[in-house]
Design brief:
heterodimer; A: alpha/beta; Rossmann fold; disordered N terminus; disordered C terminus; B: alpha+beta; Alpha-Beta Plaits; 11 strands; 23% helix
Chain lengths: 659, 237
Amino acid sequence: MTSLRDSDRPADPGLPVPEEVLRRVTRPGRYLDGELHAVHKDHRSVEVRFALAYPDVYEVGMSNLGLGLLYHVLNAREDTVAERVFSPWVDMEAEMRRLGLPLFALESGVPVREFDFLGVSLQYELTYTNVLNLLDLAGIPLLAADRAPDDPLVVGGGPCAFNPEPLAPFFDLFLLGEGEEGVGDLVEAYREWRKTHPRRSDGDRRGLLEALARVPGVYVPSFYEVTYRDEGTVARIEPTDPVAPFPVVKRVVGDLSRFPPPPAPVVPLIETVHDRAVVEVMRGCTRGCRFCQAGVIYRPVRERSGTEVVRAVRDILAGTGYEEVSLASLSTCDWGPVAHVLRELVAEHRNRGIGVSLPSLRTDTFAVDLASKIQEVRKTGLTFAPEAGSERLRAVINKGVTEEDLLSAVRAAFQAGWDRVKLYYMVGLPTETDEDVKAIAAQAAEVQRVYRERGTGNMVSRRPLSLTLSLATFVPKPHTPFQWEPQVTPEEAARRVGLVREALGDGGGAGGKRRRRRPRVKVDWHNPQMARLEAVLARGDRRVADVVLAAWRRGARFDGWTEHFRPDVWEEAFRVEGLDPAFYANRRRSADEVFPWSHLSSGVEEGFLRREREKAFAGEGTADCRWSTCSGCGVCASTGAVTLLADRAGRGKTGGDGT
Amino acid sequence: MTAGSPVHGSPRWRLRVCFSKTGRLRFISHLDFIRAFERAVRRAGLPVSMSEGFSPAPRIAYGWPLPVGMAGLGEYLDMELERRVSPEEVARRLNRALPEGLTVHDARYVTPHGPSLMSELDTGTYLVRVSAGGRSLGEWREAAARLLGRDRLEVTRERGAAGDGTVKGKVVDVRPLVRRVEAREVAGDEVVLYMELALTGHGVGRPEEVAALLWRELGLDPGAGPRRVSAVRLGLR
């Protein structure tokens, strides 16, 4: 007679969630922990407990490089444990609220409220309501001002921390810039404070925040007062505490080789958005596209050496068993040793079925050559980002890509056998006219012509061309030369997308799925209402925080997910709080306007941004300081970091062209 | 041809691996399990054969998928190696590389030209715990006997949400899928059932359906259904 032994019982005392809940929710693997390389430490053996939260689901958060880096850096410290927290999907949230289950950290299952720090990664404005939801599920008072001494310190970081004002009341502090060194400094400052305040409930929170505000790059919003003019713009931003720096300058890691890519990142048990090993080869990009915030806030360029990357790839593949590795950066084709290293990696790993990928391709034949190296057999699609259709508008945004660059790139791709191409554009860029918009369709037609004339080489595909145009609405971002510019309204964005469709001969069917004309072009169109909300939150001031709160209270969640985005809820929230989204999204700022982020510095001087704006309107280019003269952005002077380039052949520091 | 000799000319070795999937790993899907296993194979540095073509993949044949949430104590897969490595060595290296919850118990070489894993294994054996509904072991045993005596056993299976959001059901006769059902013991408010159910291309028996049918035999509220079904797949044969 068979009897169940205890070991056969499928109970798992380590599960932070009751089993019956895991049976009911979609993708229970999101809430399991137990992945390879997840770090488990005894909380009693450490001094500082740091929860690292990503305000979206597991699959999205686990694909973020920065979160993994901080996890590694913090857990490398003996005095600290870092554990992961993600947004529960809506079904799990309902279960947690029904059962009164507080938000927990994956590794230990310990409630987030018991941690010393709750770090929140702020990558995208449309996750802001999820941030509030995390705080609420954790049982942490939403307003920093309402928190007790023993509540966790809620600290934000990531690109959105460069204008975190719409979240200012909900955070105790922000860390500006790169966190590898900054989080360590925060931990040190906190330990120092705890020496004189042994219990978490000891002492006043303000004293603790003052201690932390001394760490370079730390911004404590409650230490600054913002006053407004009658017309709604910011009058002044003033520090109200003697320790509050003005401005707060971002942190920069001077030499990346001090922080090698982690060889053993957590390997998820379920499929994630970017389900592959990632090795960061370079940080920063100085191409100077005038719409791009990342190109400003991650300056200056710092490259890893080819040798270091080849070794890191070997280690991470051995440590994780991934079947693919991505060489990550803002523009990997610009990384000096790229050609040499790709050749080496393919030779070393190809016969084991391991692929190498690049996150994006530069729009030229060099990039297509690189792609040919890594996609010798299996040709998946190629993606290029001309961003604007006309030569004139590309000069305005300083996207140094000519029509000929694009056409010779796709020609090379077609001759090498590719037959799937995706082109990224924005509509609503400053100075854009209808002619510029129609030029997008004309460019698509040229790409089709090049495909027809691809020749009959034995490599070329015999299938029809699959061409996709991805059209996004331009979102003006803080700290860019276009931070003064209005966004076009959603209606105007829709009209311009219509112009592209019309020019393509597309009847305008939803999603561009009509197939009347061949060869067809597919048009992907991003929701312009979401782009508008992104624009409001990107350049919003502290008053917008009330709108975020009101929208969350009315049920806004996962605003970045098309199926959950509720424009009606947001409209209502703006109305109730008496704020006009157009004031934030669609208004041209005057030259002397005080921005809500005026006290926060990316290290790039405002004068540089103003000059770039003027050059944009004059259609003048600015060269990349890597290969040309210094463009005078000021980042090296204000951060103490400098541009560091790797030798192209990946050997020593002697220079020389390895391609 | 003896077990373990190479596949036609090319030096390949077919190894049948018996493993368990327990603990929290029960909650990952079959596809996620495959990804996790293949990553472990790579970490373990085993000389697994790769398929040819556009996207080379390790030559591993998996057995019947476990439903998400169900533990399996005796699951199988076949992997093809380029050279002979002792089965003990493979098991040792895999166990070092596998995430907690996946454990290799046994490995042995089988004839490379034998039938596929899926066709060799057509029965799953299960231990199922459900609420006993206040009935005695004797009553459960009688219900099991009555169940097996019936010509048809109809259940309604969901066919997924239709476009309009309604869930459509399909009536299926699962009698051919039920090979054996026994009530083993009543412990506290739970009864422990042993089942042998079909795993074939024509149909797969589901323990929770059989448990619900037994409830119906016992005249227990069919609407409520047996609470807290928990099932373990003991093995395949």
